[in-house]
């Protein structure tokens, strides 16, 4: 790597990529007059299901609302316990609380940052109903092991696949039913974005029908079905539902994002490989791993700094910002936040506590140039000194 020079603009940590196709799709959707959930949402769902290899995909307003509906559709209720990692975005645990259930935090494998299956087994009680696995920043969780545990104990396995579009697990895409339901996010920090948005994939016809009802007020007939029927359709409302619909404006953008997803994934994997090639030469940090059979999508590129060998992480972040580079702390630990401080989790989660303190997310986005990346690497090395 040659000496890099400072770019004129600040390098962001992430940035969604939209082209002229998204602009045109958005305008044409707007002009069609159908802007709420309609034909574009149906088309996006079909395309998404085909892409990941699932029988059904149900679009909603975010991954958080996807997870909320997944909890309801899985029958999780007040008093139930659901096992999940603390090391995740807080929405993972919040959705368990939405249905009155209790998140039971389990520690991570320090190499993958995902749930440690051995400790999952130890956390099961007579009230445990489900395991909510997270594919953290795009690296698949240990699904085979978790599935075996769930089956052995009669639990439901669910996936928070917010970051995992395009990630692969032993040859199949995340979202292909490794579990009852997988929930994806289209927030701008993720790879495929619709501004806000989410998707639930499942192979269960019954579950998908329930999800479609729940996302629109519990209504038995969709607007699209009513509109395209030549008979008067009278709907009923069989249970308390929500308004968690995605709009056709968002879905129109999502379809174009799906068209370029393979390109976006290839670019990310190329840049991630370049980071690893350079950074793995340094003895004061650890680069991300991909265990055999696991394929990362590098939604984020996260390193671990070895604290005894370098300046503090927060100091490094400030120095890099002074050099025009935006970084982020690694994944949060949910159990540190007030709504989850009702129990002393610390002694159970040593690896989570270490990981949240030592990890750092470096810039990675579709249009990042190699020159910009070289500047990031050089600045990291500079900033880490003493
Ligand atoms: C981003 C994220 C969410 C929330 O997604 P939204 O679409 O913003 O609601 C949930 N879980 C994880 C692990 C995430 O990274």
Structure in words:
With 386 residues, this protein is an alpha/beta fold. It has 2 domains: 20-259, Type I PLP-dependent aspartate aminotransferase-like (Major domain) (Aspartate Aminotransferase, domain 2), CATH 3.40.640.10; 262-385, Aspartate Aminotransferase, domain 1. 38% of the residues lie in helices and 15% in strands. It contains 13 helices and 14 strands. The strands form 3 sheets. Strands 1-9-8-5-4-2-3 form a 7-stranded mixed sheet, sandwiched between helices. Strands 10-12-14-13 form a 4-stranded antiparallel sheet. Strands 7-6-11 form a 3-stranded antiparallel sheet, with no helix packed on it. The longest helix is centred in the C-terminal third of the chain and has 19 residues, at 261-279. Residues 62-64, 88-89, 91-92, 134, 160, 162-163, 185, 187, 198 line the site of pyridoxal-5'-phosphate.
Question: Which terms would index this structure?
Answer:
single chain; 386 residues; alpha/beta; Aspartate Aminotransferase, domain 2; Aspartate Aminotransferase, domain 1; 2 domains; seven-stranded mixed sheet; four-stranded antiparallel sheet; 13 helices; binds pyridoxal-5'-phosphate
Looking at the structure, the CATH topology of the largest domain is: Aspartate Aminotransferase, domain 2
Q: Categorize the overall geometry.
A: globular
Strand percentage, roughly? 5-15%
Q: Output the structural class.
A: alpha/beta
């Amino acid at each position: 790597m040659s000496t890099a020079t400072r770019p004129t603009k600040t390098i962001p940590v992430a940035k969604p990529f939209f082209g002229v196709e998204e602009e045109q799709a958005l305008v044409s959707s707007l002009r069609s007059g159908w802007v709420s959930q309609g034909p574009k949402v149906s088309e996006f769902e079909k395309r998404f299901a085909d892409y990941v290899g699932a029988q059904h995909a149900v679009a909603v307003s975010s991954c958080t609302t996807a997870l909320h509906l997944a909890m309801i559709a899985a029958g999780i209720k007040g008093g139930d316990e659901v096992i999940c990692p603390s090391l995740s975005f807080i929405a993972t645990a919040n959705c368990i609380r939405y249905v009155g259930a209790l998140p039971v935090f389990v520690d991570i494998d320090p190499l993958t940052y995902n749930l440690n299956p051995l400790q999952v087994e130890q956390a099961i009680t007579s009230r445990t109903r489900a395991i909510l696995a997270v594919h953290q920043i795009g690296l698949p969780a240990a699904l085979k092991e978790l599935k075996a545990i769930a089956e052995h104990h009669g639990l439901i396995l669910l996936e928070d696949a917010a970051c995992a579009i395009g990630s692969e697990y032993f040859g199949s895409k995340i979202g292909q039913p490794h579990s009852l339901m997988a929930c994806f996010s289209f927030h701008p920090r993720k790879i495929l974005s619709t501004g806000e948005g989410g998707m639930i994939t499942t192979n269960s016809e019954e579950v998908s029908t329930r999800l479609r009802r729940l996302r629109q007020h519990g209504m038995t007939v969709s607007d699209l079905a009513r509109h395209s029927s030549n008979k008067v359709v009278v709907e009923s409302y069989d249970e308390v539902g929500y308004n968690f619909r995605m709009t056709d404006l968002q879905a129109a953008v999502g379809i174009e994002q799906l068209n370029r997803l393979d390109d976006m994934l290839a670019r990310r994997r190329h840049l991630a490989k370049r980071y690893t090639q350079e950074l793995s030469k340094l003895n004061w940090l650890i680069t991300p791993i991909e265990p055999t059979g696991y394929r990362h999508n590098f939604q984020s590129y996260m390193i671990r700094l070895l604290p005894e060998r370098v300046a503090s992480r927060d100091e490094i972040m400030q120095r890099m910002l002074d050099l025009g580079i935006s970084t982020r702390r690694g994944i949060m630990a949910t159990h540190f936040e007030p709504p989850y401080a009702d129990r002393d989790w610390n002694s159970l989660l040593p690896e989570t506590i270490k990981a949240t303190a030592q990890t750092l997310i470096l810039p990675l986005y579709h249009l990042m140039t190699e020159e910009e990346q070289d500047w990031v690497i050089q600045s990291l090395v500079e900033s880490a000194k003493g």
